[in-house]
Amino acid sequence: MTYRLNPSQKAIQKTALEFARGEFDKDTAREFDKRAEFPETIWRKAAELGFIGIHMPEKFSGGGMGSLENVLVAETFAGKDSTTGAAIMLAGLAADWLARFGSETQQTELLPEILEGRMRTGAALVQPDAVGQDALIGMEDGEPGVLWRIDGELDSVINGRAADIFFVLCSNSTFAEPSGGVSMLVVEADKPGVTVEKDHPMLGLRMTGAARIKFAGVHVPLVNLIGRRNQGLKQASRILPESRLLLAALALGTAQGAFDRALAHVREREQFGKKIAGFQVTRHKLAEMALQIEQARCLTYQAALQVDGKKADFRLVAMANLAATRAAVSVAFEAIQLLGGYGYTSEYDVERSYRDAKTLQVLSGNGNTLTDEIGDSIIGKLKS
User: Hey, how many other C-beta atoms are within 10 angstroms of the C-beta on 265?
Assistant: First the structure.
């Protein structure tokens, strides 16, 4: 299978790049990264122009396009500035939950708010004690008229500090259902009992404002259930490709941005009376970096095309995610080496690319888990 972008997709790439060039400022990005501040103004402008939720239904203020278009926007934004691009694209991280499983009322009330840049969503992708697994907290049946009372903590919640709503997977702990079951819920951030327990200054992607969120006796009504009760894990598995593709696209853009900065530097920098780019060792290193990026791009685009064709290949998506995050970390690291001492300074941004790449790799889950999934899908069930 090969990919070829059509004129519409190329136009989206071009428009996204023009927007990023006009709105992403290097000095502002460095300052926002230092202060862990969300780029709210840029996010709202991006939403107004339809970049947020470009793959969502038009009736809910989405773009009515596909996963590949969403990948192209995320890759382009992250290529211009990895931190700013990721913050913008992750602001509506859990909107896919609503688009796929939300009720008509939930979709009508919440999706336009998210996609038009008025509401930020918070979601936990990784727990420290269960890397690569979905984060779960406990719940039990509450008072009449209340579906559940939620107690527990979610760690490393993306957008945790400033989210308007949280999307959580809750495990049922009632006496009636001791074996439990997991349900998807949306919880308003201003509900009594919801507090930011602790900020998490992350290695990278600092503009997303990760935090630990505590839920203490939070009453959640029936209308906040997303999809079917006790079907949360099955539902989460069905939307996993979209989340992994987004992270892969951001990693791909991060790798490309680091590569472009390194290439520009070696073309200008001289040593021993010769441009650094003229040395064979430099050219070989650049060739390896470009190879990793293109391999990851092919996998990511092909995986997105299959998702758009309603034939999501979980193995291919896992491969794309693994290849893109590995490429981002490797390419950003080599970019630092090519810049020498400059690479370790904030002025040249490749150190930030590396921090963001490593954080995207962590958010994507344990690499062994992805590799296991790929291996299992290849081998299949073994006869005993």
Answer: 19
| Local confidence band at 171 (pLDDT 50, 70, 90 cut-offs) | confident
For residue 118, the tally of other CB atoms under 10 A from its CB is: 11
Both 264 and 302 in one domain: the answer is yes
Residue 68's CATH number? 1.10.540.10
pLDDT tens string 287-325: 999 999 999 999 999 999 999 988 778 899 999 999 999
Task: Provide the 3-class DSSP secondary structure of residue 378.
Answer: helix
Check: CB of residue 357 under 8 Å from CB of residue 332: yes
Q: What is the chain's Cα-based Rg? A: 21
154: nearest Cα among 118, 187, 203: 187
pLDDT digits (tens, 9 = 90+) for 98-145: 999 999 999 999 999 999 999 999 987 654 333 223 345 666 666 666
Dihedral sign for Cα atoms in the order 299, 303, 305, 306:
positive
Q: Across-strand partners of 212?
A: 198
What is the length of the chain? Answer: 384
Same domain? 168 vs 258:
no
